[in-house]
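Key result, reporting period 2: structure in, sequence out.
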């Protein structure tokens, strides 16, 4: 018999719609609150995203594909995504951040929909999706124009299309396969890890769907994307930084550092565990008793290895993060990394060891959950009982293996944000192997992740915005950009191309499919470059910073600068206080003119 309240809801169409789209609405509300809390409005760059915005500016204004030559990525898919927004809303730093924000929301929705297709409950699917969005490694990249989120978006759009293309043998299915092929090519031409999608897809067909493997499916799923990718790869190999990175990868593969491989696996396991931690906190440990003796022995061996490696790391004086970080709240910001000034350390080694231990425990819990489900039956839990797992579960496992192989191969050039490649796959697999959940534990962790991620992301933007704009005020007063040092992003945005304009730039040939009248574009650069090459060009008479004094190691000897008052200030959430911005003027420099 239907309860009265249920009867009312069944007759209430808005109520039915809210119930049907409750997960999507929750994700939208959380994303909106995050946007308001971070408040990424304003014209400023953050760390490396100035370089990607510079390439987008060339594309937006002149239709030329220009990739700065220190960048080992081709950026094509990333720039096309940003171009969609700048052509509609106009070119600005804020619009580029908005494009990354929208890409992040869509990617999180895909994770939610994939979990639902895996017969995961709404609550657990939301835990997985919000576990990605609120992750302190993922959230900052949804508010800056970096390649990490857009490359994952193209990759997972490709996965969705390829799986949809297997739903039939008609023209519509073939269209999905071709679309998926083009999308993984865009992912590859953004960050090269897009290649794992067709590799995992073809391996899945060969191992589990042999009839489809010998049909037209691999041709539609691979050939269009291969043609696009090869054109882009041959064009981009003229980039010296790409070749340098390729050499490092080949050296690692041809002569693996065997003694370091256990520690590399340990580091990856920590991050994988931290991705899955909100989901694994929902596990009821009684569900893990279904492990067979052989699989229990495997889990016991993994636990022993994890504890052994963790003790080894502690003895070596290392604590989390075990991988160098780039713009992440899970890392340790070193002084002067963004602007001239000291930032507080995020935690001491004691907290770092605690975070690392949490990641290891969650990774081992995920392994036990996967083995427990496999040990009992090939089923997935739903509120109404157990149902067979979707036939493409093995595809996700193969995709995860391919992604692990990719990040292993690229270990010499790995930053912690590169491990975001694993995050959506880990979360979907974790949610699909949890039978029952304890929602309060998951909610508590999500709140902690979100608070920490939002606070850190807000503060990164607050510091970057005010220093960048103070540098712009100096330029507006008539001071040449080569005489102003206002942090890495500001210096790169204003001086990078000028600092490399000594010789004519070598032309690079655009792919034949590129829709431009000009078939060549200039890199505007000569050699792979990092900030230290730029510093030699800048001769600062003015330095903008957030500390009351300049670090002595930047200007050894007698301090040649005097502090000038600046009217700008900003508020940080951690610590909660209003902080000042300082302008330092060289003693021998006349007073700056009024704007």
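The corresponding designed sequence is given below.
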């Amino acid at each position: 018999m239907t309860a009265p309240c249920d009867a009312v809801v069944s007759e209430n169409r808005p109520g039915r719609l809210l119930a049907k789209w409750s997960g999507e609405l929750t994700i939208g509300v959380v994303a909106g609150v995050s946007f308001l809390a971070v408040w990424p409005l304003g014209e400023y760059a953050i760390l490396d995203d100035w370089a990607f915005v510079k390439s987008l500016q060339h594309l937006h204004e002149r239709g030329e594909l220009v990739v700065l030559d220190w960048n080992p990525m081709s950026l094509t898919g990333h720039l096309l995504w940003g171009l969609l927004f700048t052509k509609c809303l106009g070119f600005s730093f804020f619009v580029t951040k908005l494009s990354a924000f929208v890409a992040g929301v869509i990617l999180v929705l895909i994770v939610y929909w994939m979990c639902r297709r895996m017969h995961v409950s709404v609550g657990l699917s939301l835990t997985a999706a919000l576990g990605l969005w609120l992750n302190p490694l993922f959230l900052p990249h949804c508010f800056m124009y970096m390649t990490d989120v857009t490359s994952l978006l193209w990759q997972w759009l490709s996965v969705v299309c390829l799986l949809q293309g297997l739903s039939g043998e008609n023209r519509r299915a073939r269209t999905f396969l071709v679309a998926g092929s083009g999308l993984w090519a865009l992912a590859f031409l953004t960050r090269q890890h897009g290649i794992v999608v067709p590799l995992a897809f073809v391996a899945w067909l060969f191992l589990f769907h042999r009839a489809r493997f010998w049909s037209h499916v691999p041709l539609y799923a691979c050939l269009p994307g291969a043609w696009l990718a090869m054109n882009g790869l041959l064009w981009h190999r003229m980039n010296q930084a790409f070749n340098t990175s390729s050499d490092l990868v080949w050296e690692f593969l041809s002569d693996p550092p065997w003694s370091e491989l256990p520690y590399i696996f340990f580091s990856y396991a920590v991050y994988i565990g931290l991705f899955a931690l909100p989901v694994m906190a929902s596990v009821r440990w009684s569900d893990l008793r279904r492990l067979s003796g052989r699989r229990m022995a495997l889990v016991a061996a993994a636990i022993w290895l994890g504890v052994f490696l963790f003790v080894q790391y502690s003895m070596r004086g290392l604590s989390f993060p075990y991988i160098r970080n780039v713009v992440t709240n899970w890392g340790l910001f070193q002084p002067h990394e963004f602007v001239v000034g000291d930032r507080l350390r995020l935690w001491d080694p004691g907290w770092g060891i605690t975070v690392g231990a949490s990641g290891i425990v969650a990774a081992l819990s995920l392994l036990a959950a996967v083995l427990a489900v496999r040990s009992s039956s090939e089923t997935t839990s739903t509120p109404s009982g157990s149902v067979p797992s979707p036939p493409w579960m093995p595809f996700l496992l193969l995709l995860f293996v391919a992604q692990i192989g990719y990040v292993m191969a690229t270990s010499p050039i790995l930053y912690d944000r590169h491990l975001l490649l694993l995050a959506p796959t880990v979360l979907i697999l974790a949610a699909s192997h949890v039978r029952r959940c304890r929602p309060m534990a998951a909610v508590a962790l999500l709140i902690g992740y979100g608070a920490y991620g939002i606070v850190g992301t807000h503060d990164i933007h607050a510091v970057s915005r005010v220093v960048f704009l103070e540098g712009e005020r100096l330029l507006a007063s008539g001071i040449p950009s080569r005489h102003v040092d206002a942090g890495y992003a500001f210096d790169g945005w204003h001086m990078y191309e000028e600092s490399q304009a000594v010789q004519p730039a070598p032309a690079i040939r655009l792919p034949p499919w590129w829709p431009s009248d000009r078939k060549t574009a200039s890199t505007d650069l000569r050699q792979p470059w990092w900030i230290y090459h730029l510093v030699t060009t800048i001769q600062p008479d003015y330095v903008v910073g957030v500390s009351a004094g300049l670090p002595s190691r930047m200007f050894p000897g007698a301090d040649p600068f005097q502090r000038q008052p600046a009217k700008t200030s900003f508020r940080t959430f951690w610590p909660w206080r209003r902080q000042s911005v300082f302008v330092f003027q060289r003693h021998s420099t006349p007073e700056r003119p009024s704007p």
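The radius of gyration is 25 Å. The chain has 21 helices and ten strands. This case is discussed further under Risks and Mitigation.
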